[in-house]
Amino acid sequence: MSSGKVNSDLQNERHKCTFNVTELINWIDGGAKKTEERKKREDMLLKEGIHHEEVPSMYLSHKEKYELAVKKACMLFKMIRRLQEEENAGMENYMAVLGGNLGSAILSDGSPLTLHYVMFIPTLMGQGTVEQQAYWIGRAFNLSIIGTYAQTELGHGTFIRGLETTATYDATTKEFVLHSPTLTSYKWWPGGLAHTANYCIVMAQLYTKGQCHGIHPFIVQLRDEETHMPLPGIKVGEIGAKLGMNGTNNGFLGFDQVRIPRDHMLMKNSKVLEDGTYVNAPSSKLTYGTMMFVRVMIVNDMCNYMAKAVTIATRYSAVRRQSQPKPNEPEPQILDYVTQQHKLFVGIAAVHAFRLTADWLWTMYNNVTAELEAGDLERLPELHALSCCLKAVSTAEAAAGVERCRLACGGHGYMLASNLPTTYGHVTAACTYEGENTVMLLQTARYLVKAWQQAAGGNALTPTVAYLGSVTAGRRSPPWDSTVDGIVAGFRRVAAGKIGLCVAQIEKRQKGGMCYEDAWNMTSVQLTEAAEAHCRAIILSTYHKETEERVKSVSPALKKVLLQLVDLYVVYWALQYVGDLLRFTSISERDIELLQNWYEDLLTKLRPNAVGLVDSFDIKDEILNSALGAYDGRAYERLMEDAMRSPLNAQPVNDSFHKYLKPFMQGKL
Amino acid sequence: MSSGKVNSDLQNERHKCTFNVTELINWIDGGAKKTEERKKREDMLLKEGIHHEEVPSMYLSHKEKYELAVKKACMLFKMIRRLQEEENAGMENYMAVLGGNLGSAILSDGSPLTLHYVMFIPTLMGQGTVEQQAYWIGRAFNLSIIGTYAQTELGHGTFIRGLETTATYDATTKEFVLHSPTLTSYKWWPGGLAHTANYCIVMAQLYTKGQCHGIHPFIVQLRDEETHMPLPGIKVGEIGAKLGMNGTNNGFLGFDQVRIPRDHMLMKNSKVLEDGTYVNAPSSKLTYGTMMFVRVMIVNDMCNYMAKAVTIATRYSAVRRQSQPKPNEPEPQILDYVTQQHKLFVGIAAVHAFRLTADWLWTMYNNVTAELEAGDLERLPELHALSCCLKAVSTAEAAAGVERCRLACGGHGYMLASNLPTTYGHVTAACTYEGENTVMLLQTARYLVKAWQQAAGGNALTPTVAYLGSVTAGRRSPPWDSTVDGIVAGFRRVAAGKIGLCVAQIEKRQKGGMCYEDAWNMTSVQLTEAAEAHCRAIILSTYHKETEERVKSVSPALKKVLLQLVDLYVVYWALQYVGDLLRFTSISERDIELLQNWYEDLLTKLRPNAVGLVDSFDIKDEILNSALGAYDGRAYERLMEDAMRSPLNAQPVNDSFHKYLKPFMQGKL
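Output (structure tokens, whole complex):
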């Protein structure tokens, strides 16, 4: 493997850094102790060498990729099991390994066992009765069975009510009959479903006594526990190759009248009695919990992926030299080009913005969950609206940001050795899974329109939309204020202005004879934009407020840089939204030119600290997994070393020369 | 394979269409005769079945993908050779097959022989002397040798002067000595270089009599013609797996003092005499030709890829149903959602906009080339500036557009069976190859700044920048005009306004003590935006003018739709640029709201013709290669059929169960 001294350009960058990198690492981790714990966990996992690949998986066939993923996943969880026994740790360890950067470093193509831990076991815990939990969770924990969670179908995704799979209760035998009435009702996508899991939680339309009661969860055995052969009536397989995550073993599943015992319906909430009587859940809103939890987690994932991408692109930009703007001077580091800084530095800021917003959302999630358990549902819609738009905006921004980083590395970013394409594969998947982004934005928009109408009716609003009150009250736009607070206030006016316009549009269209649904649809492009502007206001203000709060205890040198990043992020987004600011605030052309100069000035100020800032994300080389981004900056050496690992390079002459090329050249093919 | 009747939703769409699809197909091809020729060519190539894959290449290992690509490429060119002999056709046939959609349908991962035809032979023709052409071109045409073209190096891309490979003339032996002095000087990226080509044109720094004369082309033999073994002093291999195009066999190449005869330098332009005397080229600008040609071709490629992507996403959106906005009504086709129309229809318009702009640029290229050969270099800089920004803007818009189409298909767009990820792989590669996009925009910006200064000095300007004259002359912004012409004029004011601001910024920074280069760099983010705005004005006006000209002969029904598409595209971009229009024109808030309504109205008007419009791109299923986008709309059936072709589905139980999973579950791993 690579060894040797650090690239001298990177060394210079590290000398230039004006703050203490360790201080920032600790600040990000939440204290020196947490940094130590994280490092210990990383070292422990990495020293096992599970991430090491004899032949890099990028060179394997689809089938071999799956087989390698199964092997690695088994070894990983075996190790976690051992660690848990040794340390007597709880579920948290799973999360630390599966979430964050560590899991994706070891299983860069995704894991066929993830859903067992992330969906199968949690759903058993959340939706099973005490008896069901007692029976199933033990078996799942000690891996007597491996499960997954099957909800989406070939023809049905985000709209859950449209699912077609049926579970019909037969009171004579006290069984449910699971059935796939159509091709489009086949379960499609669940990870681990294809060839890995032998049990599955299946979401199906519950029918009893001739009536449909909507979607409920059922445990179904898919494969024989000994032979792993699919059971009668079960049609199961994999859905085929994808843009990324080809180790996750995404599967399809169809039922031909498959019978399961009555107690295989998870009955913590709703029940079917022996005679077929349906007993309703106390509150159906409780099931929103898992979905929101996952969306909160996604914002955090986006932070991790962005951190990887900007670390790679920033270090490479310090090493790469190009062009000769001044005669007789050497080619500059491409990091010195302001266009390059423009592509990278906002990404560095975004990592902090996402992390602090995710933390804030996580706190709110816990508060609302506690309130829920005490029977108070008041803040649930607000949390739902927030988790929807933050999921959409953070995944879209991260996808664009990772691609910008990849393109900022020029052609070399296109190589898998950069790890940027694989990172993009993970991030862009999040734009469509767990709620497609446009649908998410429209859910938030629906909440905003309601809030707007409440405010117009003089009612008080929940905190995150309280600002709508002042705009509906008709207050005039205050003079433009080019501070961070002023810009955040500007974004609130933009969001409020856009929501107001949407409401007016919908009403106008209704007066023109359209029904509400059609008027909503006609206005929906503007509605998504309103939700985005609202979400931007939330992210900018949260990032600003949380940073101001948390920098109180840090050194002046670090504080300065962290606040510069906030400024950069806020000004960057102000410049992106210049049209809306012109429409809905009193910003002037002169203000815009000053913002632009402020932005350029911030890029110059952050330039000397760029490498220090990405070093502070403290991503180990094994986790970063990038020839372009390694800590030592030996980008070219590593590219060549990685190339030499290609099986094609094992032979000087490929067999195809004799088989095709030579006969072709000789006209004999 | 799939067969059976057409999906009824798609059938309904085709009934609704208000224009004659065949008329539009012919209009796009340039006449019914051209359509017929194209179809004949397609049928001829496809009936050979070379595109057919026993195991789809997406399931193969990296090495197998290459071997399949070699096999297919040999069969493809063997067939072309045969067809040429039969029909006595010229080079044009190569272009028809390699460019356009046909080549990428047969070799979806790229071809290891492309550079032989697209770069090796043309460079021999363009840069070889008559004697050299006589010797080499024959051998290359009859495939006695297979060549490629090596310019970029591991450490050097867009900045050609920075290349490090040296070719030092040794007058005593009358040879050039090729050498790679550093790791960064290794050639890196050329297609076919790794294991396919046995000859190569190498761009190297020419040294003779102790002096460097810059980059020149040399023919170097890489491998033994019989055994294909690399020759002594040649280090050659492949660079490793990439985001896409893994059949292209991109390679690296290093020289350890490799000697070649003097007449292996291509000497049509510059020469080295036997005694080592260097004789300069008559005009170094002539070598710009190839680069510009390739950039013109790229705009056309982008049109083809966009056409594929919108065809897939639009047909799938007609088939896919989701959600239930109105109670008791069936789930609507997702094509009925205005947010979906917003994602797709602008892409349909972009196909036409790109095609007409590429045609226009092609005509200009031919005119300028003819002028060049007559010794007139006057319009060369203008063409260069245009080809740079059009390359950058079209590739960036196509990349964003293809991804938007992919995401518009939800999770299923993530499957390789959709063919959208592979299409993205091709398109996004074009953002960094043949001149990185930011560098391209800055080249155009440099031309615009010069033009601005000429105009300010009262000089006349070349046609595509003539509009700068009226703005520098200080004419006030005319009243806003919400017609297509008015919007195009608005874009020109935006471009001019931005260039003017940039010039002012640079001057101000120089007065503040910066040198010109630093002032330019500090202003470069704004400069790229100015170049983009200029390019938008060009595309919008060209699309509009060319359409108006060419619809004169079409039926009223078709004319109406084609003009609606122009309107849509222009209004879409006006709404994207609202901030700039507010800054640099007299557009008002009221005008913006009207534009927004106009846009929404256009979406509604185009909705019934959406499927007809993509049908008119007339992309055969074999070329589209998409389960989601096939003509019959049997998206779900095809997804399942494609899944069943995965080798993982050939066995009910994968070996990894016995090897890893079962021992793991039993705690025996």
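Chain A touches chain B through 138 residues (CB under 8 Å).
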